[in-house]
Each structure stands twice: as C-alpha cells, then as structure tokens.
Amino acid sequence: MSGALRGGWRWIGLLLMVVLTTGVSAQSSQHPSPMRETTRRHDRLLRAEDPGLRFTVDSVLPTPVEIFVPDRARRVKAVPLVIHIMGAPWLPARAIATMREPVVVAAVNLGSG
Hints:
It is built from 3 helices and 4 strands. It has helices at about 5-25, 70-75, 90-95, and strands at about 50-55, 65-70, 80-85, 105-110. The N and C termini lie far apart (about 85 Å). The model has no long low-confidence stretch (mean pLDDT about 80).
C-alpha cells in the first residue's frame, strides 16, 4: 500500500472513533415527564331511594330480576332498558334516576360470585 492510501485509512479510522465516542458522551439530558402525581377524592355513593316504581319478576330466570321505573319514565310511551348484572340493584337505579333521558333498569345476579 502506498503511504498516501495508508494515511487516508488512518484519518478515516480517527474520524470514525471521534464520531462514535462523541455520540455516547454528548447525550442530551432527559426531559421531565409531563405526568403529574395527583389524586382526587373518591367519595362513596350514598344509597338513596329515588321516586319511581319498583317490582320484582321471579318467574323468568333462576334468580329474581329487580325492575326500577323512575317517575319520568312512566309518562313516556317507549324507553330504553338497561340490564345490570352482578351488582347491587340500587346502584344502577341511582344512576338512571340522575339521567336526563327516561330509562328503565333491570338488575339481576346470575352468578355465584
């Protein structure tokens, strides 16, 4: 190999070493996370008896189905039906009692747990 070619390879090797080592040592600092560690208060819902018609249907399923028809749903010809499974029946009744639209709820527990 000629001296000029050998000297060119040295410069390329030196340049490659400089580029690789400066990339490692000159990393930018990490930006802080935009997430904030905050919590909000989670109050328990209070059980309340909202005005409306409540009745139980025992003959359709192996367990009773509790139906709640709020007062404003009784004045409407057709309303949506919400079927609530596995939970306290007063909870969906409380939720639909606070809704603007009239809705009827059927609550049933069909499991062992």
